[in-house]
Every structure is written in C-alpha cells, then in structure tokens.
UniProtKB/TrEMBL annotation:
UniProt name for this protein: Nucleoside-diphosphate-sugar epimerase
Coiled-coil regions listed: none
All copies of domain NAD-dependent epimerase/dehydratase, residue ranges: 3-215
Xref: Pfam families: Epimerase
GO molecular function annotations of the record: aldehyde dehydrogenase (NAD+) activity
GO CC aspect terms: cytoplasm
Organism: Williamsia sterculiae
Amino acid sequence: MHVFVTGGTGTIGSAVVDELLANDHTVLALARSDASADALARAGAEVVRGTIADLDTLSTSAGRADGVISLAFTPDYDTPDGLAAAVVEEGAALASLGEALLGSGRPIVTVSGTPWIPGRLSTERDPLPEEGPVGGRAVSVNRLLELSSRGVRAVAVRMPRTVHNRGTGGFAGLLTEQARRTGVAGYPGDGAQRWPAVHALDAAVLFRLALESAPAGTAWHAVADEGDAVRDIASVIGRRLDLPVESVSEQSLGPFGPVFALDQPASSAHTRETLGWEPVHLGLLEDLENIEP
C-alpha cells in the first residue's frame, strides 16, 4: 500500500513511517522544513513539501495514495490562542483529506485521545468528549468517522496521555520540560490521578494494523499502561533530574492543567482481542529512567 503520512517526523510519526516501510508499504510523507524532508528521505519515504495548512497539497497527495495516516498537530504553546488555532487547522486538514477520499473505499487513520470516564477505565465504546481544551479535535475526528457512510474507510486510533520513547514525549514529557524550567517536578492535586501510556513503537504497530484491516467508522485504543499515578511519574522525573517532587497548582501547568488533573485510565482489551495488537516495549515508568539528567 502506498500511504500518505502527515506528521511523519514526530514521536509517533517517525515510528509509524519506519513501521510502514518495514512491512512492505511505501510512504509519501509531508515535510514542512528542510530538516524534516531530510529525515524522511533518510528513512526511505518519498517527500512532498508543505504543511497541513496547504489544503490543495493534502488533497492531491491523498489522491495519489492507497491510504492516509494523519498525525500532524502543531500547537504553539507560547501564544495564548496557539492551541485553539492548531485545533482549527487540524480540523480543516482532516476535512480536506476526507473529501479527497470520498467514494474510494480507501482508508484514512487519524489520531485522537482516549476519553475520560468518571470511576472506571474508558473503553473503545465510549464517545470522545467534545468539550474542554481539545474538544474541537474530537469534533473533527467524529466528522471524519461519519464519512464511513460515504465510501471512506475512516478509522481513529485513540492515543493515551503519554506516548513515549527514550524517556520523552506526551504529558510526561511536558511535566519533564516544566520541571526543568521551574526546578520542581510538579503534579496537580494529590497526584493519585492516573494517566494511560504507550511506547511510540507499540503505537506505530497499531496504526499499521488499523490501516490494513480496521473496519470503517471504528475507534481503537493504543493503551499499554492502563494508568500510572501522576505522582509516580513526577517522582521518577524528580529523581532523574535531582529536583524536589511537589504538588503544584493546575494553573502553573498551562493550558493542559485541567486535563492533567483528571483521573483518566483507559483499557485496550477490545483492541488487543480484535486486531491482535500486543505492546512489547518498555512501560512509561521504566522508560522515564532514560531521561537525561
């Protein structure tokens, strides 16, 4: 299968590109910079220059491909509306990609987050919340899945709060960056809230499986660790950076503060049983031991 990939140099995307190429697929990858283009070419992908704001480029590239994996999401956390702008940009990109595939029966796999359900593990059957700081992403994903009735094999892979590799990535990576800036390995509240996690290399396998065989309109959970306590995550970060570990306010954690504070464990039992996905790489707490002091 010739696969058009956006976001192919990120923590998830670079692993997805390698996974596709290692399993007899070819890759056409979007690159917004010379450095990204060079990295993708070295990996063995064909490169098309542009960004996810270039809707004509997205449409044309999707038309050239047998399937699409859409991963690009580029929020600017240094500006007040950077997150909201990225949500709008991603939504327009998904709409353009979906439009290009109408009536073709070809697959498009996009990324979303696992939902949070009070008092229990979330499952693949639970709907995505369309409210909150990133609720707009769920709206866009749900609209894409609705194209299943119009001849698009649209699929969502729901990612946990931390997708990690070599001790970096995801919400845990944001906590590490915050700790380096502030001198405190902080966690919101009492730190008992749980975050699910997955190694990027395991997540990449699920994206490939979903592309190859997942039915139209379905959602799958790329969850390896069902829920690590945030206090335990912060404790490893603090030890690796030789910093104190303390409770901090939600506000000090930026736009994701309210999300950081949620207890949000998730299950992938249905995904494992149905698609045969089985994570084999390091869990989050073990991988955080790779943080550079």
